[in-house]
Amino acid sequence: MIGDGVMGFFKPKWHSLLWDMGPGPFRKLMEELAEHPDNARLLYAIELGLGTWLASRQTPEKPDLI
């Protein structure tokens, strides 16, 4: 999620068109994101933030290192 969010944020049209495959509704969504890069950047920034948040929650704490 983090890498996908970063690439989508910096190159929204290019990155969205990479995902132009699969079921029709998904392809339509990717085409819409490619046509509206500002909306795509917002979505990819949310994905980046969510991925970072999830990754931070999955790292086990090691009390002996704190």
Structure in a nutshell:
76% of the residues lie in helices and 0% in strands.
End-to-end distance, in Å? 28 Å
The profile of the biggest β sheet is: none
Shape verdict: elongated
Number of helices: 4
Architecture overview:
The protein is mainly alpha-helical and 66 residues long. Helix 1 crosses helix 2 and helix 1 packs antiparallel against helix 4.
Question: Which terms would index this structure?
Answer:
66 residues; mainly alpha; 4 helices
Topology of this structure?
Elements: H1 2-10, H2 12-18, H3 24-35, H4 37-58
Helix pairs in contact: 1-2, 1-4, 2-3
